[in-house]
């Protein structure tokens, strides 16, 4: 754990970030990986803030997500090319990352950042507190953050008929590069479940659902057979090397948020409902 | 432009300012759109509170040849109200995103105004006569005692004080899941398009219960979404052609004759990235915030965060001209990202048709910046000017003083350093009179009108 994780007030955080970003702009001695990390953290913060809004701004979310993906891709390429850490303390692929479990957790800054406030002008001392203050985030946290935001935007009930998922394997649906979407958090699983059952109109007001004990409702469902019935292509094997360290999914072995998102139900035939009911009831 | 202009250089003078004086800005008063009508006689503004205010230009007074007519309030009405979508538990903002005027066909004026979800067609009409002399009613409306009615008379119209009425004639609703960012009236004057983040719909002005979806860029899986629509406009002459811009800095030109759903563009305009200017924020600042055709339709102009680009429709691989609006901000992008200013959507506009030369190609472009500065670029002379919309130092018929921002190094007298710029004072909306050199510039809650100095 970095420092004494303090839950800081948003205004303090904003001040710190303002200091950091002006340091970014004015300082030439901030190393490139540091700058990159700073931008990445700002992206995550923004997405986190947007997630709390009832209706996040789609335009901004997409721009921020793209920025994050670019940085992520860059970092991934660097880590595959140079396994040795170039920057001590900032190792993108190091498993000793402090992962942000999900965007539900507020950012925790170490106490070291308070030094930075008084040292804004002194470039050298700026660097060290910046290093301390930057949250190191793992690939998958970023991916799940991005996906989570974009999926949230999709919950908005869409009047137009949903485009049908290409059913068979000829046309492999495109997955974004960051697919190793492992759901560390049950909440993410439930989002996936919500999308799956979107046509049942459960998902039309997720805020309402969050208050319910959804865990209880969906916990026992084994959706593996359900997945194959919809000809969902098998999970794209995650390319992220850090996957091996992830704990295996408990509840939804074959249902992660990306495949769940892909299952946009085009038709809700009674026969399908019957079939699902059979599974639920346990034949 | 700069200094004493000879020839055709315009010298801008303050003319009027509308809006509250105090610094405390009421949220509802924030101006969100500005638009002249086709004759320039009317100037409409929309605000965050859902209101539309229309100003009318006074008829030019022959004796007062030193200034053009002033704009005075003509009509004010509440166009959109805040709504609550109960299904999604979402509030729908009443802020007016765009106003577009229809060309005038009869005595009344028509305009389209839109918020995030609903477009409305408003009729603005004048009433300066009223019928008098009813048989059954008195002048004040009371019914006459029937026994006193002994003769029959025909009511006649008598003059009354001018009354301007605005009434909603059509409401085009429920066609957009995402937020509407543009509306554009077709050159056939019968149809128009509305664009949101992911879709563009085609409407007929007479039909409100149906619209055709002509562009849909929503991916099957929202997680694949990497690009949104930011603006759209019909070609001024070709009624089957329109363009839309994206958050990735591209413009697509589509022809509706090719297919019902214009998923494939006819042309794709995109400038390759300059590798020397690459940064983490390259994509964000490439997002196009506005696109406007020239009157001829031969050119179009786009605005991204730092520049204005002029495109020739015959050349897709790069713009023909690029003008830097505030290049000094390039080194401040991280701070501007942090405070969200990097997402500000600036509009741009062409000058009106030059009166002397009726069919000249438009040669001046205008756009806003921060610190209540706005910029103009003359395409012919390649000169540019920065002016400020401010109540200070603005006396009628005094030529506006050009402003200059000092990017770095020693600041000269009268220059402003980048760090002193007020990023809360942004000019996002500007409009140019279609026929004269009169411009309307909106600061946060004030509307400035400038005219050129008539000799």
Description:
The complex is a heterodimer of chains A (283) and B (455). By secondary structure, chain A is mostly helical. Chain A has a domain at 31-78. Chain A has twelve helices and two strands, in the order E-H-H-H-E-H-H-H-H-H-H-H-H-H. Chain B has a single domain, classed as Methylamine Dehydrogenase, Chain H, CATH 2.130.10.10. Chain B has a four-stranded antiparallel β-sheet, with no helix packed on it. A four-stranded antiparallel β-sheet of chain B has the order 2-3-4-5, with no helix packed on it. With 455 residues, chain B is mainly β. In chain B, 2% of the residues lie in helices and 41% in strands. Chain B has helices at 282-286, 333-338, and strands at 12-18, 31-36, 42-47, 51-57, 71-78, 83-85, 90-92, 98-101, 109-114, 119-132, 156-172, 182-185, 191-195, 199-204, 207-216, 229-234, 241-246, 251-255, 267-269, 290-293, 299-303, 307-312, 321-324, 348-350, 364-368, 373-378, 384-388, 404-406, 415-417, 429-432, 438-442, 447-452. The two termini of chain B are 16 Å apart. Chains A and B meet through helix 1, helix 2, helix 3, helix 6 and helix 11 of A and helix 2 of B. Chain B: InterPro entries: PP2A_PR55 (IPR000009), PP2A_PR55_CS (IPR018067), WD40/YVTN_repeat-like_dom_sf (IPR015943), WD40_repeat_dom_sf (IPR036322), WD40_rpt (IPR001680).
């Amino acid at each position: 754990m970095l420092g004494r994780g303090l839950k800081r007030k948003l205004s303090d955080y904003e001040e710190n970030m303002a200091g950091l970003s002006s340091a970014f702009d004015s300082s030439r001695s901030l190393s490139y990986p540091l700058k990159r990390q700073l931008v990445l953290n700002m992206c995550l913060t923004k997405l986190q803030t947007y997630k709390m809004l009832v209706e996040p701004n789609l335009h901004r979310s997409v721009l921020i997500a793209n920025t994050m993906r670019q940085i992520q891709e860059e970092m991934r390429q660097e880590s595959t090319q140079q396994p040795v850490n170039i920057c001590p303390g900032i190792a993108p692929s190091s498993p000793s990352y402090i992962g942000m479990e999900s965007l539900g957790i507020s950012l925790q800054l170490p106490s070291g950042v308070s030094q930075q406030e008084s040292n804004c002008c002194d470039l050298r001392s700026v660097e060290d507190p910046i290093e301390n203050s930057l949250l190191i985030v793992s690939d998958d946290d970023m991916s799940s953050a991005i996906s989570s935001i974009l999926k949230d935007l999709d919950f908005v009930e869409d009047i137009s008929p949903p485009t049908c998922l290409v059913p068979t394997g000829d046309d492999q649906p495109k997955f974004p590069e960051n697919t190793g979407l492992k759901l560390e958090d049950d909440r993410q699983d439930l989002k996936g479940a919500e999308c799956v059952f979107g046509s049942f109109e459960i998902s039309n007001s997720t805020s309402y659902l969050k208050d319910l004990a959804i865990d209880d409702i969906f916990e026992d469902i084994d959706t593996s057979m359900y997945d194959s019935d919809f000809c969902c292509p098998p999970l794209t094997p995650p390319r992220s090397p850090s996957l091996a360290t992830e704990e295996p999914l408990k509840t939804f072995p074959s249902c992660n948020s990306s495949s769940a998102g892909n299952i946009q139900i085009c038709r809700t035939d009674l026969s399908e409902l019957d079939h699902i009911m059979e599974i639920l009831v346990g034949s | 432009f700069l200094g004493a202009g000879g020839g055709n250089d315009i010298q801008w003078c303050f003319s009027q300012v509308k809006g509250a004086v105090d610094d405390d800005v009421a949220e509802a008063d924030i101006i969100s759109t500005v638009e002249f009508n086709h004759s320039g006689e009317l100037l409409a503004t929309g605000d965050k509170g859902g209101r539309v205010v229309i100003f009318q230009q006074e008829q030019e007074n022959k004796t007062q040849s030193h200034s053009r007519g002033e704009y005075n309030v003509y009509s004010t009405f509440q166009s959109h109200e805040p709504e609550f979508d109960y299904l999604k538990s979402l509030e729908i903002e009443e802020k007016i995103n765009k106003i577009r005027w229809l060309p005038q066909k009869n005595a009344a004026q028509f305009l389209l105004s839109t918020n995030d979800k609903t477009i409305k067609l408003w009729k603005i009409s004048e009433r300066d006569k009223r019928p008098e002399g009813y048989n059954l009613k008195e002048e004040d409306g009371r019914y006459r005692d029937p026994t006193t009615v002994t003769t029959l008379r025909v009511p006649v119209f008598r003059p009354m004080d001018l009354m301007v009425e605005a009434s909603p004639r059509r409401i085009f609703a429920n066609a957009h899941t995402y937020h509407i960012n543009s509306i554009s009236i077709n050159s056939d004057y019968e149809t128009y398009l509305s664009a949101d983040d992911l879709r563009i719909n085609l409407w007929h002005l007479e039909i409100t219960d149906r619209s055709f979806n002509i562009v849909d860029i929503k991916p099957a899986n929202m997680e694949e979404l990497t690009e949104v629509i930011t603006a759209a406009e019909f070609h001024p002459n070709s009624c089957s052609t329109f363009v839309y811009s994206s958050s990735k800095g591209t413009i697509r030109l589509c022809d509706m004759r090719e297919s019902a759903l214009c998923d494939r563009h006819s042309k794709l305009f995109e400038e390759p990235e300059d590798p020397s200017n690459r940064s983490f924020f390259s994509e964000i600042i490439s997002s196009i915030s506005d696109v406007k055709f020239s009157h001829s339709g031969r050119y179009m102009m786009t605005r991204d965060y730092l520049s204005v680009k002029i495109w020739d429709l015959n050349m897709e691989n790069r713009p023909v001209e690029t003008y830097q609006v505030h290049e000094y901000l390039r080194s401040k992008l991280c701070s501007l990202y942090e405070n969200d200013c990097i997402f500000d959507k600036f509009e741009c506009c062409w000058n009106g048709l030059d009166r002397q030369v009726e069919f000249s190609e438009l040669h001046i472009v205008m756009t806003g910046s921060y610190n209540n500065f706005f910029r103009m670029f003359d395409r012919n002379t390649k000169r540019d000017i920065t002016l400020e919309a401010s109540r200070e130092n603005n006396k009628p018929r005094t030529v506006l003083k050009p402003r200059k921002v000092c990017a770095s190094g020693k600041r000269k007298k009268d220059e402003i350093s980048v760090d002193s710029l007020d990023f809360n004072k942004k000019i996002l909306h500007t409009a140019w009179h279609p026929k004269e050199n009169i411009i309307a510039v909106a600061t946060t809650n004030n509307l400035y009108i400038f005219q050129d100095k008539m000799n």
